[in-house]
Amino acid sequence: MATTDVGLREGSSQAGQKPVVNNMSIQVATVNGSGSQSSNTVLLRSIFQMGVPVSGKNLFPSNIAGLPTWYTIRANKDGYIARKKEIDFVVAMNPETAEEDVMSVAPGAAVLYDEPLNLSRLRSDLVFYAVPYDKLVAPVCPEAKVRKLVKNMIYVGVVAKLLEIDVAEVEKAIRKQFAKKVKAANLNLAAVKAGYDYAAANLVKRDPYFIQRMDKTAGKIIIDGNSAAALGCMFAGATMVAWYPITPSSSLPESMIDYMKRFRIRADGKATFAIVQAEDELAAIGMVVGAGWAGARAMTATAGPGISLMAEFAGLAYYAEVPGVIWDIQRVGPSTGLPTRTSQGDILSTAFLSHGDTKHILLLPCSAEECFSMASEAFDLAEQFQTLVFVMSDLDLGMNNWMADPFKYPEKPISRGKVLSKADLDRLGGFARYEDVDGDGVGYRTLPGTDHPAAAYFARGSGHNEKAQYSERPDDFERNMERLNRKFETARSFVPRPEVDTGKSKIGIIGYGTSHWGLIEARDQLRQEYNIETDYLRLRAYPFTREVHDFVKQHDRVYVVEQNRDAQMLTLLKMDLEAALHTRLRSIAHIHGLPLDARSVTDELMTMEGK
Amino acid sequence: MATSTPDRPAPAPKINRIGLAVLDYRGGKTTLCAGCGHNAISERIIDAMYEMGVPPERVIKPSGIGCSSKSPAYFMGRSHSFNAVHGRMPSVATGAVLANRHLIALGVSGDGDTASIGVGQFIHLMRRNLPIIYIIEDNGVYGLTKGQFSATADMGSTLKTGVINDLPPIDTCAMAITLGATFVGRSFSGDKKQLHAMMKAAIAHNGTVMLDVVSPCVTFNDHEGSTKSYKYMKDHDEPLQEVSFVPAFEDIAIDYDPGTTIDVTMHDGSHLRLRKLEEDFDPTNRIQAITRLNEAHEKGEVLTGVFYVNSKAPTFVDLLNMTEEPLATLPESAVRPGREVLEQVMEELR
Ligand SMILES: Cc1ncc(C[n+]2csc(CCOP(=O)(O)OP(=O)(O)O)c2C)c(N)n1
Ligand code: SF4
Ligand SMILES: [Mg+2]
């Protein structure tokens, strides 16, 4: 705990102890399937409604019920929402992990536990609070069946009392959580009150942590990245979704189903979309390719194993030049890996997904806002460049709750790219599908069903000439591949540009995706604790734009921070940068599957700086 | 002048009901082997599409990979084609039909493409009853990779090298019927009349048509010992019915004897007439169809004809309840909800 974060507060409970206000990490340890998700969300929302920046990260097992789960809420007045390594406040609800949970925290942390677990015997350097959950739950919840679920809401009440969270905010959060289920809301509210009253009557505050009202969340929303992406795709005009369930991507199409049913059914009851649960990822991408070829705005969402299966079709789409959007909500590989942990491990394999000289446009969202806005960009780019666009999200972004500014309505009209209509064909007489008419590498296409005798062309994955005719001629092949490359080069100036903060230092940091949140905090730590200034570039797309080259040129050392073992983005950068710049790149890589925290980056960067 | 012959009007070119000549249904010159069964099937497709007066611009020709899957280049050049990847034509076709529900999909596959690498997608296509004509050009071997056995090769059939197939064949027709396809039949590329009639009925059907067409590979599987050769088919072809087809637009009442002929009214009002060659075979009875196919295997017959028709089952397009206007061409106003929708959702998330 940095001492600079401690503010003075009246009525501090323990002599000599300075209160720590709006700066803590609360970890709730429960059992998967015990219904703790609602309680955690309510706690998160309550703090959010108090105006304090928050983030919630669910560390869950690949299991439906019975295995340990941890949920970490970070409240931070300065707006740091990355995972924090140190835990300040433990809510130990899981008997199986309770001892380990207690043993792993730093001295001074607070622990709230179920009385029979008798955890206070374990350490003398922590603040312990015992709560007899079973005794408290019985009177508020006569129905024994749901006690297990309601029990979790009791800790929310206790925590609210201890941290001084306004109960009115908790009630509001509960009403929101249970929306139309008034009975359930009342039951849960009673549980909160039971916890609150118990704490008021029996617990003496001995930890320094407090939540105090601020105004840093006014107008903001809370949403997970997958729902944000789903909304983004709906507003991007997606018309065809084919998907196959896989963690952590499933909630994207599932949330899309909900939104589309609400907002994309016309007055006559007809849907302006088709959503199909395919038999596997091969079929999902196949449907996307078929639909994209026929003119739909088609998409799928998957994770690493699905990406691997999609390889052959990705090459077909690249070569036959078919638009489509693929969301890769990255999780830890190789193979099944850690299906419920986060990673940025699919960068290289996706950039070049499929055999032969294949390469794809990647977009790299870091926030819920970008999951929303990049959806439109992805569809526009896909149709503009008649190719697949991969949006590389990850589990941390996709499945966790994020604070976000309200999404901005897409102002740019939908761009459908170069499509010739019947009228165009009447005027032109005919067309050559793969001819580079405009010098940008992008040919004109027609959609099946266009009512003109010269509209048809033969899409294929085999060698073809400009007229889409089968050809094995070396010159045809070469010309076509070079045009495809030209198209990729054109895309360079159309993809989202990086976010750059430069001109202050000889040390540069390059990051992307969710690493961003740990990185901005690490930069502040470096400045405040070590007096080291850094410059920063956040990549937002592949192919890399001009700014990326310039940034590396401007810095003596560039740390490329990423969540994979093999420095995949750094490798991709090397392919693009002139050889003389390669030695400037250094890798800071994390592969433990937990969201990147600032402290690890700061420590590693300092070591690499030789300090 | 007096000696000159008077001008005689040239004979009017034959045209179909939408004013197109058969030439408008032709494609590029075939590069398949002379005598390959697949070429004959292309011809039957051309004839049927021409006679039915199908606008070629509304047709799409998705295919997989193989000699068979190449054939869409050799018919209907005015229709869009997608020669996709091996065994995955069903998913491409599904996507395309959902993008534009008014397209008429004619998918071409091979026995390798369907029954081996693509069997998963084949199964799920049949389940969905997507409106599509799915043709398997079935030669019992992988033609394009030079003659290895496919999964439809009969037990005991031999390769040219003498290798004997010792695994049982997959009956794609029995499979299609079990799974939910609504028009299932088998024919032979050499039976012009039967295939022609079945192809026209296929065009009239709304739902998944699965036609397994035995189509000899003259280069790798037309020898003595093969059960997919021209000769073997001539000897063992066991037609269930005499198939004929009366399109709705022809509006001529052709008499038939209900005692010997089954009349199936198709989705578009046309009639499939099946003159029974076997006593009580009823092509609307799924169970009977499957039983009869199993019997044929035991007897060593190659049963051909229409095995199963159901013209009333809802299709995948019906189930999805999509707008009449193709998804592909919906305007921005139809696919991007208004600002107030975003504002409403944001409010819910606050
Ligand atoms: C993924 C993949 N594996 C293997 C092949 C090689 N291959 C091309 S065609 C073919 C078999 C085609 O057999 P079939 O579908 O029966 O068509 P036919 O040539 O007999 O008409 C194979 C295995 C391929 N193209 N793609
Ligand atoms: S190899 Fe066989 S299947 Fe292929 S074109 Fe020749 S005859 Fe036809
Ligand atoms: Mg074959």
Q: Overview of this structure, please?
A:
The complex is a heterodimer of chains A (611) and B (350). With 611 residues, chain A is an alpha/beta fold. Chain A has 4 domains: 3-210, Pyruvate-ferredoxin oxidoreductase, PFOR, domain III (Pyruvate-ferredoxin Oxidoreductase, domain 3, 3-Layer(aba) Sandwich), CATH 3.40.920.10; 223-404, Thiamin diphosphate (ThDP)-binding fold, Pyr/PP domains (Rossmann fold, 3-Layer(aba) Sandwich), CATH 3.40.50.970; 422-492, no CATH class; 499-608, Rossmann fold. In chain A, strands 10, 11, 12, 13, 14, 15, 16 and 22 form an 8-stranded mixed β-sheet that branches. Chain A has a 6-stranded mixed β-sheet with strand order 3-4-2-5-6-7. In chain A, strands 19-21-20-23-24 form a 5-stranded mixed β-sheet, with helices on both faces. In chain A, helix 8 (251-263) links the parallel strand 10 (240-243) and strand 11. In chain A, 56% of the residues are buried. With 350 residues, chain B is α/β, with parallel strands linked by helices. Chain B has a single domain (31-327), classed as Thiamin diphosphate (ThDP)-binding fold, Pyr/PP domains (Rossmann fold), CATH 3.40.50. Chain B contains 12 helices and 13 strands. Chain B has helices at residues 37-52, 67-70, 89-99, 111-115, 119-128, 172-179, 192-204, 230-236, 286-299, 316-320, 332-335, 339-349; strands spanning 59-63, 80-83, 104-110, 132-138, 141-142, 148-149, 183-188, 208-214, 237-239, 241-246, 261-265, 271-276, 302-309. The interface between A and B is large, with 73 and 59 residues. Strand 18 of chain A pairs parallel with strand 2 (80-83) of chain B. The site of magnesium ion has 9 residues of chain B, from helix 4 and strand 5.
- Return Rg of chain B in Å: 22 Å
- Ligands, ions, cofactors: thiamine diphosphate, iron/sulfur cluster, magnesium ion
The CATH homologous superfamily name of the largest domain in chain A equals Pyruvate-ferredoxin oxidoreductase, PFOR, domain III
Helical content band of chain B:
25-40%
**Name of the CATH first level of chain B:** Alpha Beta
CATH architecture title of the largest domain in chain A: 3-Layer(aba) Sandwich
Report the CATH architecture of chain B: 3-Layer(aba) Sandwich
Q: What is the third-level CATH name, the topology of the largest domain in chain A?
A: Pyruvate-ferredoxin Oxidoreductase, domain 3
